[in-house]
Amino acid sequence: MTPLSAAHDRVDARAPEHLDLLCDLIRRPSRTGHLDEVERFADHLVKVLADAGGRAEAIRVDAGAPIVYAEWPAPAGAQTLIVYSHYDVISPEPVEEWTYPPFGATRVDGKIVGRGATDAKANLLALIKGVETFVELEGGPPCGVKLIADGEEERGSPNLPVFMDRHAHRLAADAALSFDGGFDARGIPKIGLGTSGMLYVELTCTGARHELHSAGARLFVNPAWRLVWALASIKAPDERVLIEGFHDPIAPPSAQDRALMAAMPWDDAAQLREAGLPSFLTGVRGLDAVERLLFQPGLAICGIRSGYAGPGPKAVIPDRATAKLEFRIVPEQTPETVLDLLRRHLDRGGFGDVAIELLASVETAKTDPDAAIVAATVAAARHLYGASVLKPTEEYAGRQGAWLGRRLGIPGVQTGIGPPGFRGHATDEFVTEEHFVRGIKFAVEILARFAGRPA
Amino acid sequence: MTPLSAAHDRVDARAPEHLDLLCDLIRRPSRTGHLDEVERFADHLVKVLADAGGRAEAIRVDAGAPIVYAEWPAPAGAQTLIVYSHYDVISPEPVEEWTYPPFGATRVDGKIVGRGATDAKANLLALIKGVETFVELEGGPPCGVKLIADGEEERGSPNLPVFMDRHAHRLAADAALSFDGGFDARGIPKIGLGTSGMLYVELTCTGARHELHSAGARLFVNPAWRLVWALASIKAPDERVLIEGFHDPIAPPSAQDRALMAAMPWDDAAQLREAGLPSFLTGVRGLDAVERLLFQPGLAICGIRSGYAGPGPKAVIPDRATAKLEFRIVPEQTPETVLDLLRRHLDRGGFGDVAIELLASVETAKTDPDAAIVAATVAAARHLYGASVLKPTEEYAGRQGAWLGRRLGIPGVQTGIGPPGFRGHATDEFVTEEHFVRGIKFAVEILARFAGRPA
């Protein structure tokens, strides 16, 4: 058993190769939803994983992008870690606003600029190269590793639950870890122990068979009004969701959760300045704001459309009206029960005419902060970066480490190795060479510590 | 004084020329808002009016389209009629769905197909040729005639009130008449004695300086919700406008109005079939529906926009939300007072953040059915077409005869000579040769009867 410092030396020695490979991956477009691109990328990724000693394959789930899956067997008596990241990227529009070509992987001032540079190709490759380092030095990682590289993360990972059901027999593991995203503004790794749940629906009201002249508005149904009234029945101006039973099951955060929240950095003023707003909703501040963000459900109108939107007046009764609604839910709620409550609420309120289409959902997840994988990740972060931030759960809703863990009945955490402000989903996304190379060491450290190896 | 039959013979004798001139006018595009086109058209129209013996000029009102104005002096002791129509037309898109070119004036099966064929070039030219017939036979019309040819009717006639204020000294008249639109489905001329008023506003709520991730929806203001709540505060699902004082001043229709409504053709089932709806709002039917349509105010959402409207989910808090709102108002209300009530309502309800932009307004107008111009128009219609339909007011809001009359303190009526289903604003708009030529005689008859000439 080599000392971990040898593993880090090995990462440094091979850093130029690893960086070249990262650039090569960035240069291979894998825009989410572009099946030809993601399929080509998946086939290539299988080769990268085989080179890293993994037993790898691209697995199709129905008509979706392949999930690339790889395994490295566990040493006798060792536990297995299931790791997750993704290879699809957000489309780079508006391309003309990039300083460098989005799929050029331009290297400048220690940065690599390109779509997917951090989100999540640097993250994914750091995991792979972390495992590979052990393969090269010791013939295999110190714990078993199973890797899921999602090809639809940027579209809400619709196939991931199906994949996990179909392949449950091979996914057994003792803990889950995902690498995606990056550090906070101070350069400190965030370690997430949970995820918000989410239910995203589209409501539709229909009226006459085509738009009518608004002169008839006194006689003909207006679907925009129907939608407005239905929406107003769902949430009140004091931000409370009015759906019967919606708030009932919600427990306050535990003492442990409160302690973690109190330890989180939080700056009301900075957040409000960035948004250009004078205050948070209902005037909450500080720790109350954090608690609201992480432990209370929310309901956003993400879009609403009806009728005429051009310049000037147009006298028209719309023939349809739609609203995209996103519920952020807490562990006591599930997407299914909220959907059911919503339907019942609308029916009872006289809005049986409002159609509901389910567009996306994510179940909540929450990991015990005392779990071994949490301790391993926190220790690795402290060793390499000097600090870490532990989030008891996320305001974001994603199928990352904690979600994966819940699905498998094991603890799970999520973190990411991107530099502060890495411009995920924006133009000029980047990673730094430093963050990527140290990210590989982060993976090395977590694997070793999870396997019980001394630092 | 020639007998009126001689005037009709003269119209028939010159019909081929009049039809050629109509086709020439249709072939000259005058799309509303296209200043170069409407200015060229206005200059040409001045020549057409001079040929018809009028003292004509194109009058600019600020940056808008010119209003073409012409006068024929009144014989000694005779009254003066002010007549109105318009020369601008709706843009013909989608051009590829026309059977014949929109500005081709194609003659086929007794029809002339083209944008503006009925709306309003046939109407406008019928007025002009009616006057010209008297000029040719008798040196001038039997009553004084002042003609306003609007160049912005299809844009809500924003300059017409300004024009009338600036040129009040020359617009003195005893009654007003407009020619625009056409007959009802049975081929019977509609004669309108009033107009709905209208107030068209855009409400805007703004949020953060840019769209935010919906994960923050529990803390950051969502302008789409603000707008929904504001709108729901304005009108209730029972269709009552909740603005304090809005319904207060409204008187029920008079016995005379009720008699006119009862005489109007009205078919619930046909209207609902065309709209593809099972019933009118709140279940009204028959005469109650007519009364609701003509004598109750209404409030339509004509459009509403916020956030993301593409396919699938997008997790976003919109940065702004807008709604286009149209109030249809009754004679006891004015656009100004309704706008004022709306602002106060929003402020009192905690929606001071909702901005209101005025996009358009029309004042109501209502003419006494016993006025001489009404009798002259009804008699002319009965003589030429065998019947007429008298509407006590319109569900539409337009600056036509009744509006013009109110503005000048005189009675005013509106009618139109287009064939049933003339496809105004749609593809393949048309007029028939028969409707146009008889429309000239309609103008002749009205002028004569208004001047007290025997039939």
What does this entry look like structurally?
2 copies of one chain form a homodimer. Chain A has 2 domains: 4-195 and 365-450, Zn peptidases (Aminopeptidase, 3-Layer(aba) Sandwich); 197-250 and 296-362, Alpha-Beta Plaits (2-Layer Sandwich). Chain A is built from 12 helices and 19 strands. Chain A has helices at residues 4-27, 35-51, 117-138, 160-166, 223-234, 255-263, 268-275, 286-295, 335-348, 372-385, 401-408, 433-450; strands at residues 55-59, 67-72, 80-86, 106-108, 111-113, 144-150, 175-179, 190-192, 194-195, 197-206, 212-213, 298-307, 316-317, 320-329, 355-362, 365-366, 389-391, 412-415, 430-432. Chain A is globular, with a radius of gyration of 24 Å. The mean pLDDT of chain A is 96. With 455 residues, the first copy, chain A, is α+β, with helices and mostly antiparallel strands. In chain A, a hairpin with a 2-residue loop joins strand 4 and strand 5. Chain A starts with a helix and ends in a 5-residue tail after the last helix. In chain A, helix 3 packs across helix 12 and helix 10 (372-385) packs antiparallel against helix 12. Chain A has a 6-stranded mixed β-sheet. At the A-B interface, strand 11, helix 5, helix 8, strand 12 and strand 13 of A face strand 11, helix 5, helix 8, strand 12 and strand 13 of B. Strand 12 of chain A pairs antiparallel with strand 12 (298-307) of chain B, so a sheet runs across the interface.
